[in-house]
Amino acid sequence: MSRARGLHAGTLIPHGRGNPQARLDLQQRCILRHRLHRRSPYCAYCGRRVSRKRSTLDHIRPIIRGGRDSGANLVLSCRDCNQSKGDRTPVEWCLAILRAALALQLRALAWALLGIRP
Ligand SMILES: [Zn+2]
What is the pLDDT of residues 5-30, one digit of tens each? Predict the structure, then answer.
């Protein structure tokens, strides 16, 4: 990896990090994804091992929410987590999962208390 390709040697931080509008091109994204995978081949969210081919880059803070397209805001994730998270922050995504799980538990509890079988 050379500096001419837009990534600092030995780091994952792309050039142009001072410019919030700077976006990584396709080749830079591919290189960054491979570097992240080489460093740790696990999804940042669910912890499952993900193949390099099936791995994706996820913006921790989505671009649409003001996140940057930089190494500091990108993590390796599996496709399932990336699609499930969507344009939410990790906290928003976790809260949505917890809310859904809690709603299921409360419904099951209510049915049990009322003697209703699903
Ligand atoms: Zn995952």
Answer: 444 434 555 554 556 567 889 999 99
Write down the pTM of the prediction. 0.73
Please tell me the distance from the alpha carbon of residue 71 to that of residue 53, in angstroms, as a whole number: 19
Give, rounded to a whole angstrom, the gap between the first and last alpha carbons of the chain: 58
Segment 81-113, tens digit of pLDDT: 999 999 999 999 999 999 999 999 999 999 999
Cβ < 5 A residues, ion ligand 1 = 43, 45-46, 78, 81
Question: Which range of residues forms the domain containing residue 42?
Answer: 3-87
Residues 84, 110: contact at Cβ < 8 Å? Answer: no
**What is the number of structural domains in the chain?**
2
Q: State in Å: Cα 77 to ligand 1 middle.
A: 5
**Separation of CA 55 and ligand 1 centre (Å):** 9
